[in-house]
Design goal:
By secondary structure, the protein is an alpha+beta fold. It has helices at 6-16, 19-34, 53-72, 81-140, 146-167, 295-312, 318-331, 359-377; strands at residues 184-185, 189-193, 197-203, 213-217, 221-226, 234-237, 248-252, 256-262.
């Protein structure tokens, strides 16, 4: 292993995004563009590899470091493939259900908005018909009733205006309801964040559907334009870069525009947009679950948990066990002053000697050796 290039390789992971997937894409893209790695060599040629040779090379290096991982980090776990298959199948089904639920909600919102528009148009048409009828009746009246008729028409117009005002929904005063956890409430949006993601919610000036809005979003900038309004709802740079391919947006109830953004790197944003209202990043909760870390960090954390569980159960740690096995091996070697005597680790300055000199530990060691032997025989 050569750690000299670790910082450079880590930069690729950070800049490319998508974690290990993005890193491998960059690596194989380089091999495709700048080398003959994928060229299938025929006998007599001096470039590329024979068919299957390049893939075998990759498999060989993968197996080499996988075995090293099992040996030095986390031992190989015997997980039933059926359990993994059922788990992945369940996740896929849940993902499909979420997508179907979103589609149903979107369809209901669009239908509701269309119905509201049809109802508004019908009310306007009915009001216009009533005005026409009143005007026709007034024209048939004598001159003495003209003044009174005109007053009635004016009264009807006033009533219609008042009714329209009372029926108008106060959308602009509707409070926003997403949590501002680790974020803040700003002039026309609320935002919250986790270590890996950001949620931003805008309030809309009136009910709209997706057809009535233009969204232009890339890794560093967001621009939103509502087609019947000249001024953009937002046209700003994000505080930090995002993964636009892994981010999405939706409209809820025709009144709220919500963006679900995936951060390009694990960091705490001080604001949603550059120049926006800033928060005190020292007060932000930046804790996260183990499965939110990259695979290498997860492995290190799992190893720590594994070692803690061994201690909790009265067993030595992996390092202590290695020392113990080395001492046992040297105990009866020629020239050892302890040859022929029962093994006693308390003779040495080990961190946890109490665990080793017990019948329970010896029994556990024998069981472990028997299981290893059975696996080797398979």
């Amino acid at each position: 292993m050569d750690p000299r290039f670790d910082d450079f390789l880590n930069t690729i992971i950070t800049e490319k995004g998508q974690g290990i997937y993005g890193f491998l894409d960059v690596l194989f893209s380089f091999l495709y563009r700048r080398t003959d790695f994928f060229y299938e060599m025929a006998p007599g040629e001096n470039m590329g590899f024979f068919p299957g040779q390049a893939q075998a090379m990759i498999n060989g290096y993968f197996k080499k470091y996988q075995e090293l991982h099992y040996k030095e980090k986390v031992p190989k776990r015997n997980i039933d493939p059926k359990i993994i298959e059922d788990y992945l199948k369940k996740r896929e089904e849940e993902s499909k259900k979420r997508i179907e639920a979103k589609n149903i909600i979107k369809k209901e919102e669009d239908n509701k908005l269309d119905n509201n528009n049809k109802l508004d148009n019908k009310n306007k048409l009915d009001n216009n018909n009533k005005l026409d009828n009143n005007n026709n009746n007034n024209n048939q009246s004598n001159n003495n009733n003209n003044i009174q008729s005109n007053n009635n028409i004016q009264s009807n117009n006033n009533n219609q205006s008042n009714n329209n005002k009372s029926n108008k929904l106060p959308i602009e005063n509707k409070p926003m309801n997403i949590s501002t956890y680790n974020g803040d409430s700003c002039d026309n949006y609320n935002w919250s964040q986790g270590v890996n993601d950001v949620t931003i919610q805008f309030k809309l000036p009136h009910p709209i559907s997706k057809k009535m809005i233009n969204v232009d979003m890339n890794n560093s900038h967001l621009k939103v334009i509502i087609k019947d309004i000249n001024q953009p709802l937002i046209d700003s740079d994000f505080c930090e870069k995002i993964k636009s391919d892994d981010s999405n947006w939706t409209i809820e109830d025709g009144q709220q525009l919500i963006f679900y953004l995936e951060k390009a790197k694990e960091t705490i944003w001080k604001s949603a947009f550059i120049g926006g209202k800033e928060i005190d990043t020292k007060t932000v909760d930046n804790s996260k679950k183990i499965d939110e870390f990259d695979s290498e960090t997860q492995a290190a954390l799992n190893k720590i948990i594994y070692e803690q569980n061994r201690k909790r159960n009265g067993l030595p740690t992996t390092e202590e066990e290695k020392k113990l096995n080395a001492l046992k091996e040297a105990w009866n070697k020629p020239g050892s002053p302890f040859a022929g005597q029962p093994f006693d680790p308390s003779m040495f300055n080990l961190n946890e000697p109490i665990y080793y000199n017990t019948p329970e530990y010896e029994a556990q060691q024998r069981l472990r050796q028997e299981k290893e032997q059975q696996q080797q025989n398979k």
